[in-house]
Amino acid sequence: MPPRLYAKRTRNLYDPSSDEPFRLSRTKIDLFHECPRCFYLDVRLGIPRPSFPAFSLNNAVDELMKREFDTHRAKGEPHPLMKAYKIDAVPLRDERMEEWRDAFRRGIQYHHEATGFIFRGGVDDIWVAPDGALHVVDYKATSKKDEVTIEGYWQQGYKRQVEIYQWLLRGIGEKVSPIAYFVYVNGKSDEPAFDGKLEFDVKVIPYEGDTAWIEPLIEKLVACLKSDTVPDKNEACEHCRYREIAGKELLEKMRGKKKTSQKSLGI
Ligand code: SF4
What we know:
Layout: E1 23-25, H1 26-34, H2 36-43, H3 56-75, H4 80-84, E2 90-91, H5 97-100, E3 108-112, E4 117-121, E5 125-128, E6 134-142, H6 153-171, E7 179-187, E8 200-208, H7 214-226, H8 238-254, H9 262-265
Parallel strand pairs: 1-4, 6-7
Antiparallel strand pairs: 2-5, 3-4, 5-6, 7-8
Helix pairs in contact: 1-2
The structure holds iron/sulfur cluster.
Iron/sulfur cluster is lined by residues 35, 37-38, 233-234, 237, 239-240.
């Protein structure tokens, strides 16, 4: 199938004049955290970042992990990994789990009264402690020679991710433990041969989440969306500089200053 051509989106845009509660996913909250201007371009103006191919191998690992934990969920018992790490909990059996795991359409949906927005996000898994507190669980897959940790640059985004899920669950009235878990699998690339299979090391990493940053960020996010002013660009981002320089150059050429026809520029 040929790749989907880039197009401006006309649906799921924030309309300041609408009274309907606007739905925003966890990934859009993170986009605002990363760059308010990119967020505004996407959610107000319908110009998302260009897409890139899906991480199919990671998705396959996620799916298999979910299935494996589901067999223990059905029996109401901890997964052997949870026993090995002495985690006093079991995979949560709850009829809402299917909805809470549906990252694309539903997920945990929190109607945030202060803003009127509905924030949502799909979790990988939830474990429940004997006192009823919920642990957010996220599956991660990688392949690196070093031991996996959650201290690198990308892992800061993983931490924000589980903190947002904790915030969403608390928002809908659930009792949530501050301890989240990453079930991190690391594909071994030092095996003597491939033989059609990839072996993994699996590690469970606890993380104590802090959700205090989320409400102030949400306040700024909503103010940004309601405003007609496009946020400033991030001066350190070379993509915006590229876009501006390329755009100005093409406009100049369109205006005939460099005598190049619009047709030859493809615009
Ligand atoms: S500064 Fe970078 S991240 Fe922000 S809008 Fe420009 S391209 Fe997007």
